[in-house]
Amino acid sequence: xxxxxxxxxxxxxxxxxxxxxxxxxxxxxxxxxxxxxxxxxxxxxxxxxxxxxxxxxxxxxxxxxxxxxxxxxxxxxxxxxxxxxxxxxxxxxxxxxxxxxxxxxxxxxxxxxxxxxxxxxxxxxxxxxxxxxxxxxxxxxxxxxxxxxxxxxxxxxxxxxxxxxxxxxxxxxxxxxxxxxxxxxxxxxxxxxxxxxxxxxxxxxxxxxxxxxxxxxxxxxxxxxxxxxxxxxxxxxxxxxxxxxxxxxxxxxxxxxxxxxxxxxxxxxxxxxxxxxxxxxxxxxxxxxxxxxxxxxxxxx
Length: 301
What we know:
Blueprint: H1 27-30, E1 44-48, E2 54-56, E3 61-78, E4 84-100, E5 107-116, H2 130-145, E6 150-160, H3 170-178, E7 186-188, H4 203-216, E8 225-229, H5 237-259, E9 266-270, H6 283-289, E10 292-296
Parallel strand pairs: 2-6, 8-9
Antiparallel strand pairs: 1-3, 3-4, 3-5, 5-6, 7-10, 8-10
Helix pairs in contact: 3-4, 4-5
């Protein structure tokens, strides 16, 4: 008889996922109907290699699973943005290890583990909308009605960046804003930076935006924020003013699409080259000035 893990040992499990980053695509809602029908499997899972409770980008993880009967393991990742991806382990076994790559985006992932008495070949979870999630749930129900036995387990992971890869953490943003530590509006100059003459977000910029997005769908979900675009000093005042607004719009669009934030929660302004945070005399410092800052008004405003 396998020993219960500290994480989950639940028999038949009908589960409801917590909302992922505002559930922007409806994936969370669609997957609430998923349930298992194989309590005799006594299926348990544990995730090894976590840093505390966090899964760090680039840090390998191993899923250790165990059951009373041989079966097949299927793993579904649901990211904080609502994207789904599926991987299957073909060999039937009572216990085993499954390596997991920790990948972007940052934020809360839900790992769904299906342990079945046969391969679930008809399942497909590669998608990022409610329709894909509904299809997955319906396909699993059909397989169970056709005689497949399945145990379902869930593991929540917080995907974080290695130290130094993001300027702030979601926790530090929330603490600063909630504690009203700012004498006026709380301003966060950021490394949400852009290439020269561009309003396209970089991969590093998206990583930092994920940190703010997580704050805005959790403890700060009722707080409005201004996204303030900036440029370096190269070019005319009028051109840079327009470019700074486009950069702020790019950040807002990313937050709306990735976290389901409402447009009215995010105000956009552009200051052009009027408010540098570094001298404009080197390429590196000009890069620091091409950015989008976050400004949280005081609650009484």
